[in-house]
Amino acid sequence: MKELFMGSDASKGYCDFVILDSDENVVLKNFQLDDTPTGHTQLRKVIDVLFEDPELMLYVALESTGGYENNWFKLFFDLVENENKKHKIRLTRLNPIGVHFYIKSSQKKITTDKVSAISICEFLIRNKKKIRFNEDIKDESLKKQWTYIKVLTKQSTQIKNLLEKELYVIHPQLLKYNTAKKPEWFLKLILKYPTAKKLSRASIKSISKIPYITEEKATLLKEDAKKSVASLNADVAASTITQIVEHLILLIKMLKVQKESLYQSMKKTHSEELEILTSFIGIGEFSASGLLLEIG
Predict the structure, then answer these.
(1) CA distance 43 to 57
(2) Strand pairing partners for 198?
(3) Handedness of CA 195, 196, 202, 205 (dihedral sign)
(4) Strand partners, 5
(5) Are 156 and 96 in contact (CB under 8 A)?
(6) H helical segments located in 51-126
(7) What is the pLDDT of residues 36-67, one digit of tens each?
(8) How far is residue 129's CA from residue 126's CA, in Å, rounded to a whole number?
(9) What's CA 35's distance to the chain center, in Å?
(10) 49: which of 114, 207, 245, 281 is 20 to 30 A away, CA to CA?
């Protein structure tokens, strides 16, 4: 059976392709197609011409580029799965780290899209036996969700850092409670009494109505607030810290929902892998889910 290898380097709006034979000779030199219906139609025509040889097996590799390769991958996957096996195609998505070190070891000093496509193709040829082919694309939506969770986590960290700075001048006596995992009572306390001055004037009974705050703790919080060295007590400062806390509470809720949703979805399709990963000390259910989506 004749074997050909296609390397594909996707960028925003287009993709570079090259086809080599098993000896790394150029069969079809670099060509670039737009990520549009016209570009996809042109690629299908190229593939149809290749498969005029009924004995052909085509290996296709796309480098994972954070999503720019997804439309092209879907095109090839449809050819693999949905066209009555008319074309013998083995498809894979490559981890860019492996390709990067291959390019580095080959001492290619200039890396353009064309050079990357050739390098991807060469990497495919030389590692064909180690690569997993024709895997389902069911994880793509989960990868998008994982990316969204990382964005929410970054935002949450930024808001937490901002909250700490605001507490330093508005509620400095509360900084000792400002842990990485914000206690629910801590955030609700700030919402109800956004400045040390307001907390110092509150009644013990009112403070202790907040969940997890006993009368004993309420008394301590009130006394600390009376001795606070806070430099800001104005309404503007109160409004600012209130909005920061409201934003943080929303992010915490969103992260909780997204993390649980991601794990439950992963458990349906990757239960064995999750079980193995969570057997290691320090790797929890969510971390295992993210790790699987990162490394494949």
Answers:
(1) 17
(2) none
(3) positive
(4) 20, 59
(5) no
(6) 70-81, 96-105, 113-126
(7) 999 999 999 999 999 999 889 999 999 888 78
(8) 8
(9) 23
(10) 114
Type of residue found at 113: D
Contacts of 114 (CB under 8 A, 6+ apart): 16, 18, 30
Q: Other CB atoms closer than 10 Å to residue 229's CB: what's the count?
A: 8
Tell me the pTM: 0.67
3-state secondary structure of 23: coil
Looking up tokens 């794990």, which residue turns up? 263
Amino acid at 86: K
pLDDT bracket for residue 105 (50, 70, 90)? confident
Q: Residue count of the chain, please give it.
A: 296
Which amino acid, one-letter code, is at 126?
Answer: R
Residue 273 has pLDDT above 80, yes or no: yes
Amino acid identity at 48: D
Q: Which of 139, 168, 147 is nearest to 229 (CA)?
A: 168
β-partners of residue 94 are 63
Residue 26 scores a pLDDT above 90: yes
CA 296/CA 294 separation, integer angstroms: 6
Sign for the pseudo-dihedral over CA of 7, 58, 81, 32: positive
Distance CA 222, CA 245 (A): 20
DSSP strands (E only) in 56-107:
56-63, 89-94
Beta strands at 14-21 and 26-34: parallel, antiparallel or unpaired: antiparallel
Helices marked H in 171-212 — which ranges? 184-192, 196-201, 204-207
